[in-house]
Amino acid sequence: MSEAICLTIGHLFPDLLNLYGDRGNLLALKNRLIWRGMEAEVVEITKDDPVELAKMDIVFLGGGSDREQRLVCERLRTMRQDFRSYVDEDGVLAAVCGGYQLLGSYYQLGEEKIPGLELLDIYTKTGEGRLIGNVVLESNFTGKKEMVVGFENHGGRTFTGEYEPFGSVICGYGNNAEDHKEGVLYRNVLGTYLHGPLLPKNPTIADELLRRALARKYGRAIALEPLDDTLEQEAHDYAVKRFSQK
Amino acid sequence: MNENHRFCTGRMIVNLNRFRLFLAVAACKIAIWGSKLLGKKGSSMPGQLALKIYPGVLRDLAAQVKREIIVVCGTNGKTTTNNLLYSFLASRGYSVVCNKVGANMLYGVCCAFAADASVFGKLDADFACMEVDEASCVKVFAHMKPNKMILTNLFRDQLDRYGEIDITVDYLKRALALVPDTELILNGDDPLVAQFGENTKRKCYYMGVDEDVGVSLNETKEGRFCVMCGERLEYEYYHYSQLGKFHCPSCGFARRALDFRVSGVSLCDGLEFQLEYQGHIVPFDVHYRGFYNIYNIVLSYAAAVLAAGEIPDYAGVLARYQPQIGRMEEFQIGKKIVLNLSKNPAGFNQAISTVGKDERPKDILIAINDNAQDGKDISWIWDVDFERMNGIGVRNFIVSGIRADDLALRMKYAGIEQERMTKAYGLKEAAQALASGGGEIGYALVNYTAVFRMQDILKELEKEAENLE
Known about the structure:
By secondary structure, chain A is α/β, with parallel strands linked by helices. Chain A is 30% helix and 31% strand. In chain B, strands 2-3-1-4-5-6-9-10-11 form a 9-stranded mixed β-sheet. Chain B has a 6-stranded mixed β-sheet with strand order 12-13-17-14-15-16, with helices on both faces. A two-stranded antiparallel sheet of chain B has the order 7-8.
């Protein structure tokens, strides 16, 4: 009897970074394992809990308001080295919205400069007005071209330099409303402004994160059986159809 | 010569303004009448027109209120609270201006005043009670200074319009800075609301539920960290969302002593509780459901007694009160159908709690639109505890509205089996499915722009059902 296949998913600071349906992303990761007869352990790590990143297979960093982000920032900075090793060892990290901004060097918020985790050489600064609306991307994240749908709502503009973006913007603003790029990819790190939430409606993205985490943990490719994604596909296709034809 | 000239100019300006007030009010009335003829519910355009003709129209009309202007603000419960306040004051024989239909931005407020004024711009009102949208307070307060302001609660709502809840708080801070003498009547159980009573010289009154009623859920909570210092708030008990008896272990920010203290709450059949304030003990026993209505009732009652003294017929007012469209509004279509407006996680979770208290087998319809007034971002549906709809005797689920596809997926994750779920894009089709479902009662929980259409449909179906009998 082989042991059941199981991933440990760490949800960082749900008490602080919990805006915009992040819960849906966690549910998608967890359920898409369980629906395939695998196991998932979701560990909710609050601000004052100790964090052992080395025990995580997927780390999820959600969105928060500017005020909450300031609170979380100091806490994150104390674990910078751990994060660095986790990422260098191909740990899977999904960061959405505020969490995405924190991956970079800093977030220039008017006069104030909030230092980031410095995992990636990217930075964010506030701009005039918030970038809000439905988004459709074309993404190569899974290895083939796919449409990704979501919703963005951010005051910060993120500049990602030479990194590969998560996708190119078909509809919406993306990282900074200038370069038509959305999000960032680096090793197994996915940073994006898309909530909505991202993963339930883009099951191939969820599966890609799971696939990478499984390969890393078990040292071999583990096949993910296809699931009945009819409802997922309908919600996804509706958004693509409605928003990409503007 | 010079003096005289200046005097004349002054009088001309006064006369000119009176003339412009007359024009503005007259134009507003004609526009209201015109849009009624066209069958529109809109009360924004006429107000906009009036302000364009004479920017001082709201200021001049509001200045004629004899006693007090009371503003109701907060995410949920504004309309109910404001309309109850209106009814309490009217029961004392006062004449009251009120934006009853809930048009709560600058133009809507202006329109409500103009509608009640004579065509010459004369307003005969003892009180004005106005619900004002959180983001519009800054604009409205530039025209009129309320004597009192009720703040009901602050939840996530329409995030794409306001950005973040912190932005809403900033809007309110900026608005309150314009009116340093306005007294506040605050929901003391909500730390996000109670913060407005800290570090201020203005008079503040707090109301709250001073016991653990046991209605708390495990739901996404806003503002779990102290707004003063950032430390995690501790709670002796929660009521719902971030409402409860809180304190900050670090800086001492805590729920204040309650000026209007609710206790002895029973939710078995309607709402029963007692209210203690200023040496009085007043029992309440109403037929409406929903724990959250305690806040609406007590905040409006508190404002009424503070502004006008005792309200002898308060129980009669509450018994006669007709809830606004889609506030647990009932229809008979073969079985009882209850329509409720639910437009954000806090509202939905409260509605689900209320539905769960009903032990009959039931059908549930949920409809979400994403029009501008609803908020284009619907990701909040993942923060609603739809999981709690399992095990409360639901026969059929119907998902509908513009974002029916998103709801269907959410329901899948909530563990609702596909066999029990119907996706009906059209609201009428959905309403029919609800009426013909296998339950003894049907609940329709729908968001803002869906509620008006749904009410029309349910009325229509009710009429058809009557004719069949």
